[in-house]
Amino acid sequence: MIKVTGINKSFGSKQVLKNIDFSIKNDSVVGLLGPNGAGKTTLMRVMVGFLSPNSGVIEWNGEIAETKSAEYRGNIGYLPENNPLYPTNTVNEYLELIANLKNLKEPKKEVVKVIKECGLVSVVSQKIEILSKGFKQRVGLAAAIIGNPKILILDEPTSGLDPNQIIEIRKVIKKLAKNKIIIFSTHILPEAKAVCDRLLIINKGQIVLDELTGKVKNLEKKFVELTV
Amino acid sequence: MKKVWIIALKEWHYLFSNPVGYIFAGILLLVAGWLFMGDLFLMGQADMKPYWNVVNFLLSVFVPAVVMGSIADEKKNGTWEVILSTPIRELELVAGKMLGYGMYLGMVLLLTLPITITLLVLGKPDVGPMIGGYIGTLLLALAYLAVGLFFSSISSQAIVAFLATTITLILNNLIGQESVLMKLPTILRKVVEGISLSSRSARFADGVIEISSLVFFVSWLVVFTMLTVVSLKTRDK
Hints:
The structure holds two protein chains of two kinds.
Chain A: E1 2-11, E2 14-24, E3 28-33, H1 40-48, E4 55-60, E5 63-64, H2 70-73, E6 76-79, H3 91-101, H4 107-117, H5 133-145, E7 151-155, H6 163-176, E8 181-186, H7 189-195, E9 198-203, E10 206-212, H8 219-227
Parallel strand pairs in A: 3-8, 3-9, 6-7, 7-8
Antiparallel strand pairs in A: 1-2, 1-4, 4-5, 9-10
Chain B: H1 2-17, H2 19-43, H3 49-67, H4 69-77, H5 79-84, H6 90-110, H7 113-122, H8 127-153, H9 158-175, H10 178-181, H11 186-195, H12 197-205, H13 211-233
Helix pairs in contact in B: 1-2, 1-6, 2-3, 3-8, 3-9, 3-12, 4-8, 4-9, 6-8, 6-13, 8-9, 8-12, 8-13
């Protein structure tokens, strides 16, 4: 279980996250929804240890996590917004780089495993720069899941994909959901409802709704109100 | 240490997977070789010091050009988010980049060996200053690299990093020139000479390997490496 308590984050005088509290049990896919600029990416960056919060703590399995420690970051798989990759690497080179940085005991074996899981076998020797957007997204996803991390944080993983590619990525995410916490950000409500079993809606840096997907009614209406 | 090596190989691969590495190495060697060889037969002396003077000046433009995007581009493209969300420390990342680019610069220096061999064949140069020249130039290139990495870490625009590094290095180079030093009072001259990388490097090319200069170069590397690490650690401030 991961528990986020009292997280505040400011950049200069602008407060981006305001007293964020929530907890997520294992085997959950949680959708983090909100309009652009709501604070989704900043919250994710704090959770992966890329940014430090001004105040607040993150607990992992009952203990306060030092989010910048190698131990904590070893539990995290992260796909940042816009899926940054090294274009001159081949798929295999890139995944081996990430596997080696994650300190895995058998990096090559792990790379083979994620290549199969993410359907990258046909493009494994190709340079990333020549791949389609859908395949690039799969490479980013494969890099995030290398080493079977306990927490998977995906920042708008379907952004910019065509409808078929979105369905494929959703399938991969659902397949990965066993024994993991997946936090999935999007600003598309139907997508969150299709993939997630719980929704967290963030607006202007605050959590304004935290509910199981099935229990929420008239969500479209609420979401539109929030977005407006 | 393993991660330092992984990052070093990543940088090495980057430099040779696109034209950057080849173009800059080619330009440096051609320009330096052309300027040096033009005067060599006029002087009639098998001495590499003029060659190192040219190389050292060219490095103050060449190193910033090669290293300008090393961190700035990672910030701009967002790949540093991927790298820094893995269990790697900022120090390992910076040390890995230093090692990767350092290996590249070392390789470029090795490509100057044909000049050395030509001089050895044509005349009877003193080998000590030749070896000193290589050591001094490598240390100078690493010191320039450390400055370049620092400026690359504080900007997400590679061109800003390039300009800031080049101006810093050219100024450092100029203050070490005899024409500038001569105009300074004796006390100030000692201080300025002491912090000038090129004048310290030039002493190596004279065949003088001073412990104080070695300590100075190592200190310079440590200081700029730590500044780069601090800059990465304070990324969210």
